[in-house]
# Entry
Amino acid sequence: MPVVRSSEGTTHEIHGARFVSYAHPRTGGKELCAWRVEIPAGTQAPAHTVDREEIFHLLTGELLITLDGRAERVTAGDTVIINPGATLAVENPTDRTATSWVSTSVGLTAELADGTRLTPPWAN
# Structure
């Protein structure tokens, strides 16, 4: 039985946020990936379009999530369902770090507005 201890997460940093990856093919995940993301106060991540469904559950804090042009304030305990092909932007307009748990299927890629394609290691 694969067990990934909290101390065994792999940390990645991009666009001002910290992604701590726990479940992916290198840790025994066959179909799903999961990670914790820490979004510091004042962070505004660039909009990106995802090619797989993501489930984004806010653990702590408050965020402004823009999904396909519609902005919504989410607070701890809220879950955002991001469908394939949706364009997502995440902003932390508060003075505290927000933490979320995200799950998706293996192989997720994202495309930035300028056409840059990202293959995040925490989802592949």
